[in-house]
Amino acid sequence: MLHFSIIILVSLCGNSFAYYVNNSLKAKSYNNRQRFLVIHYTAIDLENSVKILTGDKVSSHYLVPDGKLADEGVIYQFVDENLRAFTQGISYWRGWTNLNDNGISIEIVNLGYEHINETIKWFPFSNSQIQLVTNLSKDIIKRYSLEPKNVIGHSDCAPGRKQDPGPLFPWEQLYKNGIGAWPDKNDVLHFQQHYSNTNLKLEEIHLELQTYGYYINKDAETTRNAIISFQMHFRPAKYDGIMDTETFAILKALNKKYR
Question: Which portions of the chain are predicted below pLDDT 70?
């Protein structure tokens, strides 16, 4: 038989009751709030990144600096992992919206890109930054048992609106360190051969993108933006928004591997 201590308090306004929380019993049906790990770049320098991310409008759980601080192994934490950071904005992934509610964010100090003579120049990440992101991501994934498909870039959950972390972020390198998803080469080759002489149907393209996690409403621009984000993540050598055979083969291989 369980016994609870109840204290009766009398105040001038009437009777009120204190309560005692008995936490000796635990439920079995629960899980972590944290479902997603989202990688960003700041598109501004360190000083301004810190200023903005510690302000009253935008925040992030973590910030990986550049330069000497990154070489020294410094990572800033601005928000506790159990609290919401205001970083993803309008977002969608695998049926979930507003990933601020259940995502952990890592911002990396990086200027993003600039336009030079009608071409885009992307700024690279330093080796120290990637090592810090790798080590931090592994710890976060272990803490919350995050699925590989749920380690994504900001552009994956907000195609068209966001481009970070961009095509120079080494997703394959992170995968080799146990972080995120990546297709098996043999599966990619198999699907390339299978679809080499096939006209890809738009309905199947939509289905495969949606199956992997992207928001698809069958609008042409939305589809193209999703393809660009996918290519930046998994085929960064060419991210033109065209669903060619290689891109589709990678997508099919991923959906086969991560059902």
Answer: 1-15
Is 47 catalytic? The answer is no
Q: What angle do CA 133, 136, 138 make, to 5 degrees?
A: 105
Give the residue among 198, 202, 193, 234 at the shortest CA–CA distance from 210.
202
Asked if residues 226 and 162 have their Cβ atoms less than 8 Å apart, the reply is no
Other beta carbons within 10 angstroms of residue 115's beta carbon come to 8
Single pTM value for the model: 0.90
- Provide, rounded to the nearest whole percent, the portion of the chain with pLDDT above 90: 87
Residues 6+ apart with CB under 8 A from 95: none
Q: What is the pLDDT of residues 107-138, one digit of tens each?
A: 999 999 999 988 999 999 999 999 999 999 99
For 184-239, the DSSP string reads: -HHHHHHHHHHTTT-PPPHHHHHHHHHHHT----S-HHHHHHHHHHHHHHH-TT--
The CA distance from 256 to 241, in Å, is: 22
Q: Are 108 and 129 in contact (CB under 8 A)?
A: yes
**Of residues 126, 160, 169, 127, the one with CA closest to residue 38:** 169
Query: Given 47, 107, 203, 221, which residue is catalytic?
Result: 107
Residues 6+ apart with CB under 8 A from 43: 110, 111, 112, 164
The secondary structure of residue 73, as a DSSP letter, is T
Retrieve residue 113's tokens.
């890109």
